Structure formats: structure tokens, C-alpha cells
Amino acid sequence: MKEKTELMSIQPYFVLDADNFCQRVLFQNGISHFYSFCNSSGSDIALKLFVDGCSNIIFEYSNDKYGCRTVRSHFIGSIIEPRSFCVRKSCEYFCVRLRPGASAFIKEIGVKDSVGKVIILDELSSMKEFCSAMKTQGDFDSRMKTFLDCYGQIVQTEGEQSRTTLFRQIADIIIQHRGMIKVRELEKLSGYSSRYINLIFDNEIGFSAKQLCMSVKFQFLLNDLNNGALHSFTSLSSEYNFYDQAHFIHEFKNCTGTTPSEYASELSEKNYTQSIMNV
Questions:
Q1: Spatial distance between the Cα atoms of 190 and 166, rounded to a whole number of angstroms
Q2: Handedness of CA 186, 188, 189, 193 (dihedral sign)
Q3: Residues with Cβ < 8 Å from 21, sequence gap 6 or more?
Q4: Position with higher pLDDT, 11 vs 63
Q5: CB-based contacts of 191, cutoff 8 Å, min separation 6
Q6: Distance between CA atoms of 99 and 91, rounded to whole angstroms?
Q7: pLDDT, tens digit, for every residue of 234-264?
Q8: Residues near 195 by Cβ (< 8 Å), separated by ≥ 6?
Q9: What pLDDT, in 10s, does the model give residues 124-144?
Q10: Which of 13, 134, 168, 252 has the most CB atoms around its CB within 10 Å?
Q11: 3-class DSSP state for residue 29?
Q12: DSSP letters of 186-229?
């Protein structure tokens, strides 16, 4: 039996430009993995965010001038064009990476309204108790357990609509094909029209099936680069079904704001894989 392909991706500059990146992979209930990092430098850092079909919840832990623990909670919606996120000096971060379509449990945020946005969760009435519970946790394990307890209660209470189930099935097909599938092929495999598929995607993630295909394809490509596939952009462009190397460079820049060569240069300087600790 063919092993199931999972979308294992991270925003790479959380690894490259922050400190002490740790992760624990989960792949259940819409959660991809938990991760943490810190900024031990003496200044704030604007970390680049690449195009990304997943979303992230980021808890920022710091101490005020009296030494009291403070927490600020952010939700980063699916990124459809490059942007940045400010990582503040002397802060530590605990984060949850959600698979595509898993953010609907945040009631005050419409799916479309969250795309490409950074939203402060502490300001949302439905999330206050959630954020307050996370504030008192001091280590990776307790934060992960507390998040799972709160998240599980919400997801169990809400249940899942038939359209959400269908979205997950089609999104899984896209991931199994590493994003390299046309919408007309999704029609054949799912038995639904492209119009209905895009209606479901619009309701569940706020953008089209074609856009998710592009995002998933880019995340798998990025993962290959992060894990050392830097020797031939020509072979990568062929493997990922770009028309030619020029098309590959153009699309890569649209997703990252930088060229493949510039990104590869940064990877070679900072040793990406050795900067990740699995816990």
C-alpha cells in the first residue's frame, strides 16, 4: 500500500532568523504540528512569510517591567502573497500549525477575512478563555496539552458539516498529488463540478482550489530546497511541472519575494535542517 503523503511545511524564516526552533509533529484533528522558537537578539526582527495554504496560531510570551508574564496571541491566516511578521526581542513563541481549512473554530473571524491577515486573538470574546489558559503554561508540553484540551472541546462541540468533510477529502487529494493536479482532474476524482468545488473552497478557506494547488505545490518544493535539493533548479522546475526554468523563477519570486538562488544562498549559510530540533 502506498504511504500517505502529508503536507509537512513551516515558514522557513522562523528557523533561519529566529533561535532555538523546536517542533513536534502531530497530524490529527486539523493540526499539522506544534513548534516553538525565540528571539534572543537585542532587537525586533521582521520575519518573511511565504505563500502558504496553512494557518498558524502564535502565542508570544514575554515579561513586563515588573517581571510578570504576559502573553499576546496571534492568528496568521493563509498567506496568498509574501508579507512579514514581527518577532519581538527577548520573547519566546509557542505556535500551532493548522492544516488548510482548520481555522473555522475561531467564530469571530470569517474565513475570507482571515486570508493574508495577522489577527490578535486576545481581543476576540470567544478566544479569551482559551488565551487565558495558555498564559499560565510555562513549557512546551504543558502548552501543547492545554491547547489540545481547549481545541478539542471546541471542535467536538461544533461537529463537522458535510461540505467541510468534502473539502477535506478534496484537499487530501491535492496534497497526495503534491499540488500538481488540475481542477478538471479534481472534478473527475471527486465527482463534483469545478464550480461546486470552488464554492466549497471559498467557504472553507477563502480562496480557490487552484490557489490551494499552487500553495501546496510550492510548500513541497520549498521542503525539497530546505532539505538540500539545491544542486539543480532545472531538475526541480521539471519535477514540479513548470514550463521551464524561467517560469520556475517567476513563480518562486511571486511566492517568496526572492529568487531561488537568493534563497538557496541563505540556506547554505545557515544550515536549515540542523537548526530544527524534534521534541
A1: 9
A2: positive
A3: 14, 15, 35, 36, 37, 275, 276, 277
A4: 11
A5: none
A6: 26
A7: 888 999 999 998 999 999 999 999 999 999 8
A8: none
A9: 888 888 889 998 898 999 999
A10: 252
A11: coil
A12: HHHHHSS-HHHHHHHHHHHTSS-HHHHHHHHHHHHHHHHHHTT-
Cell numbers standing for residue 250:
517567476
Residue 219 burial class via C-beta count within 10 angstroms: exposed 0-12, middle 13-18, buried 19 and up:
buried
SS3 145: helix
Nearest partner of 54 among 208, 207, 215, judged by Cα: 215
The count of residues in the chain is: 279
**Alpha-carbon radius of gyration of the chain:** 19
Residue identified by cell 545557515 is 270
Cell of 197: 468545488
Instruction: Order across the sheet with 31-39: list the strands.
Output: 118-120, 69-76, 55-63, 91-98, 31-39, 19-28, 276-278
Q: How far is CA 81 from the centre of its chain?
A: 13
